[in-house]
Design goal:
By secondary structure, the protein is mostly helical. It has 2 domains: about 35 residues; about 40 residues. About 60% of the residues lie in helices and about 0% in strands. Helix 3 crosses helix 4.
Length: about 100
Amino acid sequence: MRAPRTREQLRTSLAEDWRLWLLGGALFVVCLGTAYKFAKEPLFISMDSALFQHAGWYITQGAMPYTDIWDIKPPLIYGVTTLLALPPAGIWSSSTC
């Protein structure tokens, strides 16, 4: 796909490849919004992600989901955060305690 050089080529390109233009525009907007949000609060951790991080760490200490830790989320999120909590402190964790 070559870049359109005239208005007629641009109209033809939009008519034929509108899905690509739509996808490119949506991707641009999402990237722009993500960059803005990250620039505003670069190390923001929501309450949910903090709970999942703590639950993953707690499972590595021997806790059982839905017995020792309770949340209404399915078990996959606990498995993922447990895997992320397994490497030595300092790689993906924010504390060394």
